[in-house]
Design goal:
Elements lengths: L1 E10 L9 H20 L10 E9 L3 E5 L6 E11 L2 H8 L10 E7 L7
Antiparallel strand pairs: 1-4, 1-5, 2-3, 2-5
């Protein structure tokens, strides 16, 4: 199994894009369920030392692109570290992320040893 970084992003540049307190409260349970499901599969891990420069970005409707290419208007809302067999499995895990329902995206990067990145 390999370790991957999942970074959650969404547009937070305008007041209209900000969720209401009620929306934020309603979002808690889907996040708890998603992360709890990852933990129940023993795929939630502590952060390693380094990440590769290459990755994938998962957007709504299962759109997966090479990346990461963060837009200036996007901000990081959080991150977790997961264990998966390969990039494909890590991307499948990312497709369940609740941030996608909010118009956000998930960046997926694989951990690399310091020797591989020098």
């Amino acid at each position: 199994m390999t370790e991957f970084l999942l970074v959650f992003r969404r547009d937070n540049t305008t007041k209209e894009e900000q969720p209401s307190p009620e929306q934020m409260q309603a979002a808690i349970k889907p996040w708890q369920d998603w992360i709890g499901g990852i933990a129940a599969q023993n795929k939630l891990v502590r952060p390693p030392q380094r990440w590769s420069a290459e990755g994938k970005v998962v957007r709504a409707n299962n759109l997966v692109t090479d990346g990461p290419y963060a837009e200036i208007k996007e901000s990081i809302g959080g991150l977790i570290f997961v264990r998966a067999a390969d990039f494909d499995e890590a991307v499948e895990i990312a497709k369940g992320c609740p941030v996608l329902a909010w118009g956000g995206n998930v960046e997926v990067r694989m951990a690399v040893s310091p020797a591989e990145n020098s």
